Amino acid sequence: METNFTPFDNFDLKFCIAIFSSILLITGILKKIWEIRKLPPGPWGYPFIGHLTLLGTNPAETFIKMAIQYGDVFFIRMGKWPTIVLNSKEAIDEALIRMPEIFSDRPKFYSNNATNKIKGLVFGEYSQRLRLHRKIASGVLQEFATSKSAPTEYLVRKESDILIQTWMQSQDKEFNPIHDIEMTVAAVIYQLLFGSDINCHSDEMFIDMVKNLKTVNEGASAGNMIFVNMLQRFIMPSKVKQLLERLELNNKFAEKCISESLPSYDKNHERGIVDGLITAANKYAEKKLTVMELQGVRSTPLYGISLVLALIQPQQHYNGQFYNILGGRRATLQDQGRLPYVEATILEVMRHGTVAPLNIAHSTSSDVKLRNYEIKKGTVVFCNIYGIFKDQNIWTDPNTFRPDRFLSKNNTIIHERADIIATQFGVGRRRCIGDTLSKRELFLFITSIYQALETNLRSDPSYGRIINLNCKPTPYKIQVNPRY
Description:
two-stranded antiparallel ribbon, unspecific monooxygenase, 7% strand, 19 helices, 8 strands, iron ion binding, 484 residues, iron, oxidoreductase
């Protein structure tokens, strides 16, 4: 018996394709809705660019406002990058302290990929190789910068004396101190790297390094599409080109420093951190260690001093403590615990000014569940340190500069509050290895300046409105007088 099959006509075929396509589309939409329901809450963004245009000039402040509506963990998109923002110390600790293996990666932003330099301590992915480099760098930094025999105190004194002498030449004038501070702090780091007998103020390579680092920092704002969206290279190619050229110059500078140090390198007479890294590279057979992995330690003292000059007005309280405790001698590192009001001032400056408002972005290395939310691998993670430092549940008057909030009734530092400020240097396994050096430098610079000079603010700066990788005051002017 012969069976006849009736083929679909064109209408039936089109109808089936339409039904099949609709089912796929609906399934995809339902799947996306289901995935979104498992994410933290957050505001609606725009296609392709996400929430980048909504962040403004102060993304950390924007995140505080979003957190009021969506909670201390919420979801946004930075261009193509899914992102969660952690807005409380509790949320940050839950992620970075309790699940460090998953939350210690870095996002592979365009700038990293474009320069092909994604293996450093700061921006490199969290791996066994990075852990080895961190161990090496921490050991070298300890030996040459934070040990008792390290020249840090000598270098800070030497450079602060040069700074004070420079300012004394302008004591009858008003001037912007920020450039002088940048050069002074960078000079200390440069000499720790290459040796304390270098006159770096006349060294062209040193001057170029400072200019390059300044350009990179100014271009690397938290909401800057250069770092997160490849479309930016077509929209604003000149800015992208300039930034990437600076990044590449810094990488070449690091390589040049190593290569020029090799001919005079002597493992029995190491001059500074660079020689220490060369020794470590030979020991561990690691040929990719670079001095730029330690450049981040300049940021806190650099912006800290700028903020102190802008915020501490008047200074009679410090004068009395210097005289009553130190007499006529100069403060040393051994005096850190003996000058509680100075320490409290430094803590309050870091809180009020918030040197690194969002720190450096983290990324998840695998799918993870945070609270009841499902976070996908590769999600960018921002820690809103600025939000913690302005949290009214912690600080009763967060917008007021008041150092005594860190002092107990017995005039001692309240360590629980000081520990909150320590998040400034990062949390978990990506914490800055130079935090101890930075705090020591800041203490020595501040005491040196205020034991020698009285500073008077002549124009009001704005601190905290413009936020890049680091925050510093907008230009302002001071006038100085000798204290004795």
